[in-house]
Amino acid sequence: MSAAQIVVIAKEPVAGRVKTRLTPPFTPAQAAHLAAAALRDTLHAVAATPVDRRVLALDGRPGSWLPYGFTVIPQRGDGLDQRLAAAFEEAHRLRPLPVILIGMDTPQVTPGLLNTAVTLLASHDAVYGPAADGGFWLLGLRRPDPSLLLGVAMSRPSTGAAQLRRLHEAGLDVAHLPELADVDTAADAFHVASRAPGSRFAAALAAIRAEVPRSGAAMPVAADTG
Fold this sequence. Notes:
seven-stranded mixed beta sheet, 7 strands, 226 residues, alpha/beta
């Protein structure tokens, strides 16, 4: 077992509160169902990764989707930069180990990728996983410091570059992971499902599409996944 902890930062998958950019073409209930599937995939990947501690920084209440063995802490702060910084700070305060943080938006993540991040963090100050939309899907810090995140403009195409620049300006030795795609839009959902066909997320998306003809609603159209 590696001397590190993984924090998942997530929202409770409640219709109208999560994955709102998926509507349309999906309904709020369908978007929440997809969010729940993505969260399950992420949490189970973390649960299968050999680390000292697993933490869920949650906006909302835990549900049946939460596997055994996670410490749940509430999110703090207003902007996403504040919430990320607080999650790092709180996890490290409760147990002073290196912290790897991921979101609930990359259900294609695997224990192998996470284990690589843990291994890299043992010999680097930070680990960075870029996202296809210009953000990042993973950030690991051997010694978390809120100043490394506070003030970085989040949810923009330039977010990843700004965060990486902040790490380099602090003099940190940064290791890099492969790029993954977040699930923000319907096109993202189809792309990610095609890359992880055995995931809970892909199964949930297939089930939604199978139900649409019976409901009479407009069917979401799969994007070209290249």
